[in-house]
Amino acid sequence: MLLISCPNCGSRDETEFHYGGQAHVPYPENPNELTDRQWAEYLFYRDNTKGTFAERWNHSTGCRQWFNMLRDTVTYEIQAVYPMGTPRPDSAGKTTADTGTASTAADSTTTGTAAPSLSSTSTTAPEGATK
Amino acid sequence: MANSAALEGINGLRDIRRSPASHLAQALEAGSVQGKVVLAEGPFQTMAGVRVNPRSEEGSRIAAVTGGLPVRCGDVGGADGVSVLWLGPSEFLVVAPEEAHDSLGGKLIGSLTEALGDAPGQVVDLSANRTTFELSGPRARAVLEKGCALDLHPRALKPGTALNTEVGNIPVVLQKTGEESFRLFPRASFADFLGRWLLDAMREYASPEVP
Ligand SMILES: [Zn+2]
């Protein structure tokens, strides 16, 4: 059982949370211009990281808010909890540039009171959307 | 024709209204162990789900109606018999006595709706959404601890705190109303299961304590 620190509610059991998959996967800027393959890659292709992984979590039976978390997929160590829309910190808590399909730009899902809005999505298309 | 007598005015409906755990009333009484742990279903209450940015103008208008909004997780705001439970940074549950409902001569829902106006947010009448269980006695904490992962020790959980969590795997709002008393707000469809779960958890306290 993981003990996850919700930014709003503090430490809670893993069973109160819902996993939201890989973080920093921005919605494509122009989905209509994508080929089927690029669209499929945006929808379904995710990193399968062994080690530190940035992922989204929702405190579904608590405050119902989304947040991002850096978690080691081998040791389950939680290295950082940070708001959606902020860049991925490194394991020591500092902010670094992302590599791969992840992006440092704002997420397509916002946190707090605002509803998810496409106008606030990243201008950086994911790798699959540009190549 | 439908039973028009019952549908004439809210009072007819009020008379046939049954609470979600009313069928358990006898079992709750029989399962309570006086002096150790007592469980009962609470009376009907008027509840409103409010979503509003508390730092906005409309948030202040809502706060004026309820007597304040809670600021952080665990806080309970409100005044004059109205409690406002914190569910999220912009989500609150307003709980008031049944008479506060507009259909019974009160004006809570109407005032909240009016206070929000056309501003972003929502006010929803949730009076039938949840029921309340009142659990009290020196063993109340021990009963909850069988199915709740929160730290319920008095040094961590003070009276007047309300937390959104799980008890017996059921999502509830758990409010600590006194040193040894708790109020649980499960959704109506979970009332039967949670009531029976609590009764089961209470059963050992009816037997003499094994030293
Ligand atoms: Zn939370």
Features:
heterodimer, A: about 130 residues, mainly beta, Folate-binding fold, four-stranded antiparallel sheet, two-stranded antiparallel ribbon, 2 helices, 6 strands, disordered C terminus, B: about 210 residues, alpha+beta, Gyrase A, domain 2, Alpha-Beta Plaits, 2 domains, five-stranded antiparallel sheet, 7 helices, 10 strands, about 25% helix, about 25% strand, globular, binds zinc ion
Account of the 3D structure:
- With 131 residues, chain A is mainly beta.
- Chain A has a domain at 3-83: Folate-binding fold.
- Chain A is 10% helix and 24% strand.
- Chain A contains 2 helices and 6 strands.
- In chain A, strands 3-4-5-6 form a 4-stranded antiparallel beta sheet, with no helix packed on it.
- The model of chain A is unreliable at 96-131 (pLDDT under 50).
- By secondary structure, chain B is of the alpha+beta class.
- Chain B has 2 domains: 20-42 and 131-211, Gyrase A, domain 2 (2-Layer Sandwich), CATH 3.30.1360.120; 44-128, Heterotetrameric sarcosine oxidase (Alpha-Beta Plaits, 2-Layer Sandwich).
- Chain B is built from 7 helices and 10 strands.
- Chain B has helices at residues 4-7, 9-16, 25-31, 57-66, 108-116, 140-145, 191-202; strands at residues 38-41, 45-51, 76-77, 83-88, 91-97, 122-125, 133-136, 161-167, 170-178, 181-186.
- In chain B, the strands form 2 sheets. Chain B has a 5-stranded antiparallel beta sheet with strand order 1-7-10-9-8. A 5-stranded antiparallel beta sheet of chain B has the order 3-4-5-2-6, covered by helices on one side.
- In chain B, helix 4 (57-66) runs antiparallel to helix 5 (108-116).
- Chain B is globular.
- Chain B starts with a helix and ends in a 9-residue tail after the last helix.
- Mean pLDDT of chain B is 93; it is low at 1-7.
- The chains are: A mainly beta (131), B alpha+beta (211).
- Chain A binds chain B through residues 8-10, 12-13, 15-16, 61-65, 112-113, and chain B through 53, 72-73, 87-91, 149-150, 163-166, 169, 171.
- The complex binds zinc ion.
- Zinc ion is lined by residues 6, 8-9, 59, 62-63, 65 of chain A.
